[in-house]
């Protein structure tokens, strides 16, 4: 299941997009939203932070929560401190599955994923798309699933939204306890230039993620390519208290 604040953020984004909350108007206060949606003020605050990060609202003391735009006005910025923040990315984007196939990992892929060469995986090829900018996909992602896990959710892949790791948890109870990731700069591969509507070899980020369950076993890995001008990855570093 999605975190409650992520569900609320999705509801608010939809309400702004369909005109329930008009541009130039204001949203109810945190206290009013808490009562209206039956959630805590902390949940409301977290949801509003996500909506504000997309440029849809502004918040000022004594001025309330003002609606600034009906659609996101900035490139996606993903700020992560936990797995829930990663899942929030799926709330405001759509998954467009391009192909699903069973493959054997060649030596190059095996090294990238940290698995045995020749091991079998279900590969899901997809685009992540901002509904407000459907002609400029945010990224291309190849998802690699343990064959047993993949067989259990294969029929649902084209129908559902959200992150695939959430589907695995709902179906098998395998929780993404830890996500390990590597980021490197690459050129957009020629095979992805068309689907991404980007120039081949233009600047891009490649993010490889490994999803581990409570036992430390990897059940999913993803390799995503983000054209440089469409995505910003942000994080914070804090010094530990002495």
Write up what this structure looks like.
With 242 residues, the protein is an alpha+beta fold. It folds into 2 domains: 4-67, Winged helix-like DNA-binding domain superfamily/Winged helix DNA-binding domain (Arc Repressor Mutant, subunit A), CATH 1.10.10; 76-234, Chorismate lyase, CATH 3.40.1410.10. It has helices at 4-17, 30-37, 41-53, 83-91, 107-113, 147-153, 164-172, 190-196; strands at residues 26-27, 57-60, 64-67, 76-79, 94-104, 120-129, 139-145, 178-187, 203-212, 218-227, 231-234. The strands form 3 sheets. Strands 5-6-7-10-9-8 form a 6-stranded antiparallel sheet.
Write out key terms for the chains shown.
8 helices, Arc Repressor Mutant, subunit A, Chorismate lyase, three-stranded antiparallel beta sheet, alpha+beta, 31% helix, 242 residues
The CATH class of the largest domain is Alpha Beta
N- and C-termini, Cα separation: 38 Å
- Biggest beta-sheet profile: 6 strands, antiparallel
CATH structural architecture of the largest domain:
3-Layer(aba) Sandwich
Q: Quick check: average pLDDT? A: 85
How would the blueprint of this fold be written?
Layout: H1 4-17, E1 26-27, H2 30-37, H3 41-53, E2 57-60, E3 64-67, E4 76-79, H4 83-91, E5 94-104, H5 107-113, E6 120-129, E7 139-145, H6 147-153, H7 164-172, E8 178-187, H8 190-196, E9 203-212, E10 218-227, E11 231-234
Helix pairs in contact: 1-3, 1-4, 2-3, 6-7
């Amino acid at each position: 299941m999605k975190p409650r604040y992520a569900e609320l953020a999705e509801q608010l984004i939809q309400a702004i997009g369909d005109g329930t909350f008009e541009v130039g108007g204001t949203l109810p206060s945190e206290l009013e939203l808490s009562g209206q949606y039956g959630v805590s003020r902390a949940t409301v605050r977290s949801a509003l932070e996500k909506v504000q990060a997309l440029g849809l609202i502004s918040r000022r003391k004594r001025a309330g929560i003002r609606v600034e735009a009906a659609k996101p006005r900035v490139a996606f910025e993903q700020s992560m401190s936990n797995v829930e923040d990663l899942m929030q990315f799926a709330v405001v984007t759509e998954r467009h599955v391009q192909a699903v196939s069973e493959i054997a990992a060649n030596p190059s892929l095996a090294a990238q994923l940290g698995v045995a060469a020749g091991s079998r995986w279900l590969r899901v090829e997809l685009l992540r798309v901002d509904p407000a900018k459907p002609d400029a996909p945010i990224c291309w992602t190849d998802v690699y699933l343990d064959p047993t896990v993949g067989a259990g959710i294969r029929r649902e892949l084209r129908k559902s939204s959200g992150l695939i790791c959430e589907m695995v948890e709902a179906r098998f109870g395998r929780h993404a306890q830890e996500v390990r990731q590597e980021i490197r700069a690459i050129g957009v591969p020629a095979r992805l230039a068309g689907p991404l509507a980007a120039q081949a070899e233009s600047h891009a980020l490649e993010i490889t993620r490994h999803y581990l369950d409570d036992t430390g076993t990897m059940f999913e890995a993803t390799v995503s390519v983000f054209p440089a001008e469409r995505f910003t990855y942000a994080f914070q570093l804090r010094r530990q208290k002495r």
